[in-house]
Write a structure and sequence with these properties.
The protein is mostly helical. Helices cover about 50% and strands about 5% of the residues. The chain has 14 helices and three strands. Helix 13 packs across helix 14. The longest helix is centred in the N-terminal third of the chain and has 20 residues, at about 30-50.
Length: about 300
């Protein structure tokens, strides 16, 4: 049983709102679970010391950091530096959410760097040159299709898993996400190179996988048994390419959403269009999730979810 129990209704409200926030800005379920644990402990600490969440000071953050470095870990000893950094990063997110809700005016951690080591692993770790290297190391049309789906289309893991063959339209160069995060639909425009990579896989490699016909063959991406490809297999394919290309070994499936968002913004695409592309509910989410640039895109093509066929 978790020893961090929040008793006050006020603190539970903060916890529940933060939970919705981290899911909304696109973190994986595993990361969300970790952040929730970090914030539950932090709120318990505030509650015991009778400190209101919207009145936390920089000195109190320092006191909590010192507490984190000294408190016993479950398996003996003290918390690792990595775990402390992760906890402090979660707290930084917590106060960012309070700012976005207009509950505080100044971020109490703006002058502190406790979370820097963990935050770097959440930044965009893939340059345009890295993406080119990854494509160059692909050995199969399937691997290029995987990159096209998670980078070229910016799909979340669950969205990639759910993608059906009927959702990819080569002639109109669009991909339909019928049920994204929060049940939202969207239509994603496909670049010429992504269309060619998906067509190569669909017409040249997928038919052989279908011949095994073991499982759900309605999926666009199939595993070696001809069944719907799981998120784990997507991750495995990415790991193979990352290892071979020798780019940053911290790269995971989700980093490709960071990368395409950043690259689109740097190319000049307006934030609201990147929001639509990624399937975010609010523009504030996109601003939190990406590195915002000041340039503007010269030509915009926008697709609306209303065009998705039934």
């Amino acid at each position: 049983m978790d020893k961090f129990i929040i008793y006050s209704k006020e603190y539970r409200h903060h916890y529940d709102r933060f939970t919705r926030y981290v899911y909304a800005i696109g973190y994986s379920p595993a990361s969300c679970k970790t952040f929730r644990t970090s914030i539950r402990e932090f709120l318990c600490w505030l509650e015991v010391k009778n400190i209101q969440a919207d009145r936390v000071t920089e000195s109190q953050i320092r006191s909590y950091y010192n507490y984190q470095q000294e408190r016993p870990a479950r398996n003996g000893g003290v918390l690792s530096e990595g775990r402390v950094a992760l906890n402090m990063y979660a707290i930084k997110l917590f106060f960012q959410e309070l700012i976005e809700c207009d509950l505080i005016a100044v971020h109490p951690m703006s002058n502190l760097e406790y979370a820097a080591d963990y935050k770097r692993t959440r930044d965009n770790l893939l340059s345009i040159e890295d993406i080119k290297r990854l494509y160059n190391e692909c050995e199969t049309a399937k691997q290029r299709a995987v990159l096209g789906i998670i980078y070229g289309c910016g799909l979340r893991r669950q969205e990639a898993e759910r993608l059906d063959a009927k959702d990819v339209h080569f002639r109109s160069s669009v991909l339909y996400v019928r049920e994204g995060k929060g049940g939202r639909k969207r239509t994603i425009p496909l670049s010429r190179s992504v269309v060619e990579d998906l067509k190569d896989y669909y017409y040249n490699e997928r038919p052989q996988l279908i011949s095994y016909a073991w499982g759900d063959s309605t999926a666009f991406m199939l595993n070696q048994y001809g069944a719907r490809m799981s998120g784990k297999v997507y991750s495995d394919e990415i790991r193979k390419i990352v290892t071979k290309s020798k780019v940053d070994d911290r790269i995971t499936l989700h980093h490709f959403r960071h990368a395409i968002a950043t690259h689109l913004l740097e190319s000049g695409m307006k934030t609201e269009y990147v929001k639509d592309f990624l399937g975010h509910m609010s523009i504030e989410t996109t601003q939190t999730y990406t590195h915002i640039t000041t340039t503007q895109m010269k030509k915009i093509t926008r697709y609306g979810a209303a065009t998705i066929p039934s």
